[in-house]
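C-alpha cells in:
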C-alpha cells in the first residue's frame, strides 16, 4: 500500500469492531469466550511474527503482522473496559505520559508543545547523559510500583517479566545487574566464566550426576547470554539466526540424500556430515 493511498479506517473503527466481536448477542463465539490468559500466547506469537518479518525484510508482510500485534492491545483494552479497570484511552494516556516523562531532553516541560526547537539536532544531546536519565526514570517507576506491592526495598531486577522467553529474560536480568556495577570488566572475563561453567558440566557428567549437569548447562547458557550483551548483540536474535542457518543446512542434507533415494535414518553420520560441510561451503561462496 502506497503511503499516500486513501485510508478507509480509523483507530475508532478498530475499537468498534472489537466491541462488536465481544458483544454477547452480536459477536463472534470465539472472541466472546476469550479472556486475559487465553490471549497471552497469541500476543507472544504475534510479537515473534513481527520480528520474523523484519529479519526476513518482508516489509510487504509487516503491516499485516503489526496489525495483528496491535489487535492484541485492542483485546486487552476491551477486557479492561468490560471489567471497569481501564480502556484504550487510558492505555494511550499512560503511554504518552511515560514517554514524555522519559524524554526531558526532547520535551523539557513534559508536553508535546515543549519539544526541542528545530535546528537543534539529536546529536547535540549528550547520549550518555540521556541514557543515565532514562535509567534513573525507569528506576523511579519501578520503585513506585514496588511500593504498591510491599515494603521490601526496590531491586534493579524489579518488573523484568517472568513470561519472557528464557533467553530474553536472561539478557534483561544481566543487563539490569550490570547497570548497577555487577559485571565483568570486559568480554574476556565472560569467556573465562563460560569455560569455568563448561568445566563444571564436564565434572558433573564424570560424576554421573545428571541433575547437577542440567543445572550447570543453565549456567553455561546464562554466561553465553552475558557474552552476547557484552558484544552488544541480542542473544535471541543470534539464536534465531543460527536456527535458520541450521534449518537451511539440514534441509540441504535431507535433499541430497533424497536425490539418492535415501533417508537420514538409513544413512551414516559420516555421509550426513559430508553433505553438511558441502552446504557450509556453498553458503560461504
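Residues out:
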Amino acid at each position: 500500500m502506497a503511503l499516500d493511498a486513501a485510508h478507509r479506517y480509523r483507530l475508532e473503527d478498530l475499537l468498534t469492531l472489537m466491541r462488536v466481536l465481544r458483544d454477547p448477542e452480536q459477536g463472534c463465539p470465539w472472541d466472546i469466550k476469550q479472556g486475559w490468559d487465553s490471549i497471552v500466547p497469541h500476543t507472544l506469537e504475534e510479537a515473534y511474527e513481527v520480528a520474523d518479518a523484519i529479519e526476513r525484510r518482508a516489509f510487504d508482510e509487516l503491516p499485516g503482522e503489526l496489525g495483528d500485534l496491535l489487535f492484541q492491545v485492542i483485546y486487552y483494552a476491551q477486557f479492561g473496559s468490560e471489567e471497569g479497570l481501564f480502556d484504550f484511552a487510558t492505555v494511550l494516556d499512560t503511554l504518552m505520559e511515560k514517554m514524555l516523562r522519559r524524554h526531558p531532553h526532547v520535551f523539557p516541560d513534559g508536553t508535546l508543545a515543549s519539544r526541542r526547537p528545530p535546528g537543534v539536532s539529536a546529536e547535540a544531546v549528550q547520549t550518555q547523559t540521556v541514557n543515565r536519565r532514562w535509567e534513573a526514570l525507569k528506576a523511579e517507576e519501578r520503585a513506585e510500583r514496588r511500593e504498591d506491592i510491599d515494603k521490601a526495598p526496590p531491586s534493579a531486577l524489579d518488573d523484568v517479566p517472568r513470561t519472557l522467553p528464557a533467553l530474553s529474560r536472561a539478557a534483561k536480568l544481566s543487563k539490569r545487574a550490570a547497570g548497577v556495577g555487577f559485571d565483568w570488566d570486559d568480554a574476556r572475563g565472560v569467556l573465562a566464566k563460560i569455560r569455568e561453567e563448561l568445566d563444571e558440566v564436564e565434572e558433573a557428567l564424570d560424576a554421573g550426576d545428571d541433575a547437577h549437569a542440567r543445572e550447570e548447562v543453565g549456567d553455561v547458557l546464562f554466561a553465553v547470554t552475558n557474552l552476547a550483551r557484552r558484544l552488544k548483540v541480542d542473544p535471541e536474535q543470534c539464536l534465531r539466526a543460527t536456527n535458520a542457518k541450521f534449518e537451511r543446512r539440514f534441509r540441504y542434507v535431507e535433499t541430497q540424500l533424497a536425490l539418492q533415494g535415501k533417508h537420514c535414518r538409513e544413512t551414516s553420520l559420516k555421509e550426513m556430515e559430508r553433505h553438511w560441510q558441502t552446504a557450509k561451503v556453498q553458503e560461504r561462496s
